[in-house]
Design a protein that fits this description.
The chain is mainly beta. It has 3 helices and 29 strands. The strands form 10 sheets. Strands 12, 13, 15, 16, 17, 18 and 19 form a 7-stranded antiparallel sheet that branches.
């Protein structure tokens, strides 16, 4: 019993000695910094090249060592950019302060208007703290591009039928429309150049003019920025003058177009004939839309009707009035083969089609398969319907 008491007394003495030692060490240890608040002031703005960001910290145990913008553009800041900043803090006195070893983004106070903290890392045995911040997205004032994308020096050549305009620094491309007697004729066409050949639209006497506006890509949403329309001067022609522009105007050896690419609202090129898709003779042309629907305009102003036409590798069928048919079955003239034109008017190939609740399969030539097994292992009956 005496031995047990002596052992317990020895343990108590050891414990008292450790406590004293810890207390003595605690009196000389540093203060742990568990959180900080920072303020940011940025001179970054759209179209500017300055990337200066000033940072201050409110804790007297640490100070700002460095501030660096890590995604500085090669030319100028653009709308939609989100500047990224890396901030390094150091303790003011290594003997008196240390950063806590388990920092979270919430441990850094930052006004929402200044940006958001994306990561926090401490290092150098708690003497250094690295904070990464993403500044708010750079945005122009609402409605800025409506005026900024408006083009200048819009001209209409009364001999060639070519419209031209001055380059706009904000535009990625341009949109144009042609009018006769203030009525819409065709468009909207998009081009990255600074001119457009309207000569083929001089089909009759009248007063012609075109509209143009700048268009800029908006990566932040599905809608592009578009400027206000600008009108050209007017060209008034009689029938003979209109024919001269249509036949002899446009680009020639003496006129160098500034256009690099031109696209319409759909693909262009191609002619064909026959009871169904067969053969092809590629020529230039373009899609045109009016209040009734889409139709294809050949270079000579004719159009396909009650027939098929191949356009850029896809087949389309046009009704007797010359309009493209969509979501419709077409029977060949011999009454033996069905083809299906999809939502965009193109003939469906190598794919299943659902019509009136029934599934059909169209092969590589567009013909509906009947009484056979499809490539994916299903079977269609004599009417082409999938047997479930």
């Amino acid at each position: 019993m005496k031995k047990l008491k002596r052992f317990a007394a020895a343990l108590l003495a050891m414990a008292m000695s450790a406590s004293v030692s810890f207390t003595a060490m605690a009196d000389t240890t540093y203060t742990v910094i568990e959180s900080v608040s920072i303020d940011l002031s940025s001179s970054i703005e759209i179209d500017g090249t300055d990337s200066e960001v000033d940072v201050s910290v409110d804790h007297n145990g640490c100070e700002v060592y460095s501030v660096k913008v890590t995604n500085e553009p090669s030319d100028a800041w653009d709308d939609g950019d989100k500047p990224k900043v890396t901030i390094v803090l150091y303790v003011t006195d290594e003997d008196s302060y240390r950063f806590d070893g388990s920092w979270a983004k919430s441990d850094v106070g930052l006004s929402e208007s200044d940006g958001k903290v994306t990561s926090v890392t401490d290092g150098s045995s708690g003497k250094k703290l690295t904070i990464k911040v993403e500044l708010p997205k750079l945005e122009r004032e609402e409605g800025f591009y409506e005026d900024a994308l408006e083009v200048e020096e819009v001209e209409f050549d009364d001999e060639t039928g070519i419209g031209s305009w001055q380059e706009n620094e904000y535009a990625d491309r341009y949109e144009v429309r042609i009018f006769r007697n203030d009525s819409y004729v065709a468009g909207s066409f998009k081009t990255s150049g600074l001119d457009y050949d309207f000569s083929r639209y001089f089909t009759r006497q009248g007063t012609y003019h075109f509209k143009v506006r700048g268009v800029r890509n908006n990566s932040g949403s599905g809608d592009d920025f578009k400027g206000n329309w600008r009108d050209s001067d007017e060209i008034t022609v009689d029938s003979d003058e209109a024919e001269d522009i249509r036949l002899y105007g446009g680009y020639d050896d003496s006129y160098t177009s500034s256009s690099t690419t031109t696209t319409n609202t759909s693909n262009n090129s191609g002619t064909s004939s026959g009871s169904g898709p067969a053969g092809t003779t590629q020529t230039a042309g373009e899609w045109i839309q009016n209040s009734t629907g889409w139709w294809w305009c050949n270079p000579d102003r004719t159009y396909p009707a009650a027939n098929w036409k191949e356009i850029n590798g896809a087949w389309y069928y046009f009704n007797p009035d010359g309009y493209r048919v969509d979501n419709t079955w077409i029977l060949s003239q011999d009454g033996k083969i069905w083809y299906f034109c999809g939502a965009n008017g193109a003939m469906v190939t190598n794919a299943w089609v659902q019509s009136s609740g029934i599934w059909y399969y169209c092969g590589p030539d567009g013909a509906m398969w009947t009484s056979r097994r499809t490539p994916d292992g299903y079977y269609v009956d004599s009417n082409g319907a999938w047997i479930q």
